[in-house]
Write a structure and sequence with these properties.
- Helix content is 4%, strand content 47%.
- By secondary structure, the protein is mostly beta strands.
- A hairpin with a 4-residue loop joins strand 7 and strand 8 (80-85).
- The radius of gyration is 14 Å and the shape is elongated.
- The termini are far apart.
Length: 133
Amino acid sequence: QVQLVESGGGSVQAGGSLRLSCVASVASEYTYSGSCMAWFRQAPGKEREGVAFIDSSGSTNYADSVKDRFTISRDNAKNTLYLQMNSLNLEDTAMYYCAVRPPSLPITHCSAIYPHHYEYNYWGQGTQVTVSS
């Protein structure tokens, strides 16, 4: 089992920055380090969309809307996933969720980018990001 807790959301003016964190409680440290992880967001009345993705090796991918502004990273020693968000704009306002996809045993490492929400097994409760003009 994996439990995820996000933090770092808040209100910021357009052009500002925020750093989101997602701390995982896992049964096995190997499950976390071998997992694929992602940040998704959902604005009112819109579908949940993938924002940033990272596999167990540290390879990353981003939605076009956040490329060159957002950076996803992970610290396996701290069981923590991060999302650095710069140059925020009004369209970035949403609830942000972290998600985990553990490796499929006997494979011990998740080595692909999974862009769809249904490909992830575990979710946090979300942290709100509000950008104002």
